[in-house]
Write a structure and sequence with these properties.
The chain is built from twelve helices and nine strands. By secondary structure, it is an alpha/beta fold. It has one domain. The strands form two sheets. Strands 1-9-8-2-5-3-4 form a seven-stranded mixed beta sheet, with helices on both faces. Strands 6-7 form a two-stranded antiparallel sheet. A hairpin with a 2-residue loop joins strand 6 and strand 7. The longest helix has 24 residues.
């Protein structure tokens, strides 16, 4: 898929790390305004795509002025996400928990782990998902993050180094590996770990087409497949930035995947519940959903490349 002029580049991340370490967060927030304006100017395709996605999320309720304001706020919030992400390996537990002082629903994770089957923690490209993994690790939870293979080796190495420093294991999924790409994730669940995944984009492989903001949208079946195979619950987890520039973390109620004779229906139903959970949270924070491409336009273009039901071998999970 063509992602256009995505505002994340390795050459941008290095100076951002220096800025994150040198500038207090209050000053970062102040500087975020002019930087967001520059981003709007230098990344026109991303700007238009964000505006289009916000329009659809709003269901026609947002005026043009409101769409422009939310688009600007998306770039501003994304800049803070990158700054905080680069600061992560330099944060101690005290500093991290000062930035994310509230975690609602932690008992859901604790109870799930007590069953000994692990947890499939799923989130969207919303807020600051990397901070969520760091917060869980700082509380002593065993966290493994599943990530797609990054086309830029430099960015991949940087992300793995950051996660390693904060005590988060990285599990890289190989393109074209099919069901075998899930093997390390299942192994982590069997070690009673929290396996964290981003699941609001389906690039290839097993996909369920479910209603999402009134449109048929492809969602990956991977979380449901993992949960059904392992007996672990799917727990949606979100970390969003508040008006006070402090993060709120929330773990939603678990989604349990049925194990009936209708396997494909079980997977689809769980994925639909997850999509509904994502929809509710994105509707509350449309200016923190970071898809710098027109997600529904690309769904239309690439739909023929996706499976309409699980195409993974039944024996594999």
């Amino acid at each position: 898929m063509r992602r256009g002029d995505h505002p994340t580049r390795r050459e941008l991340l290095v100076p951002l790390e220096a800025a994150a370490r040198l500038l207090p967060r209050r000053l970062q927030a102040w500087l975020g305004a002019p930087l967001a304006v520059l981003s709007l100017l230098f990344f026109p395709r991303s700007r238009k795509a964000i505006a289009r996605n916000i329009e659809i999320v709003g269901g026609g309720k947002f005026s043009r002025g409101e769409i422009r304001r939310l688009t600007y706020r998306t770039f501003r919030h994304y800049g803070q996400y990158l700054l905080d992400y680069m600061l992560l390996p330099h944060m101690g537990r005290k500093e991290l928990q000062a930035v994310i002082p509230r975690m609602e629903g932690e008992e859901e994770l604790r109870r799930a782990l007590q069953r000994g089957k692990g947890v499939v923690a799923v989130t969207a490209h919303l807020g600051n998902w990397e901070m969520g993994g760091a917060l869980l690790a700082s509380h002593g939870y065993p966290v493994s993050v599943a990530t797609a293979l990054e086309p830029d080796p430099g960015v991949l190495a940087l992300r793995e180094a950051i996660r390693r420093r904060i005590g988060v294991e990285t599990l890289t999924l190989s393109d074209g590996a099919g069901a075998f790409s899930l093997v390390p994730l299942l192994a982590a669940l069997r070690r009673n770990r929290i396996v964290a995944l981003l699941a609001d984009r389906s690039h290839s492989g097993a996909t369920a087409w479910v209603p999402f903001f009134g449109r048929s949208t492809g969602f990956p079946l991977g979380p449901a497949i993992l949960a059904r195979a392992s007996g672990a619950p799917i727990v949606p987890v979100f970390v969003t930035l508040g008006d006070d520039w402090i993060y709120d973390a929330v773990a939603e109620e678990p989604i349990w995947v049925d194990r009936t004779d209708e396997r494909d229906a079980d997977l689809r139903n769980a994925t639909q519940r997850l999509a509904a959970c994502f929809e509710a949270m994105i509707a509350r924070h449309p200016d923190q959903w970071y898809n710098f491409f027109d997600i529904w336009q690309e769904e239309r273009v690439d739909r023929s490349a996706y499976a309409t039901k699980s195409d993974l071998p039944r024996t594999s999970v």
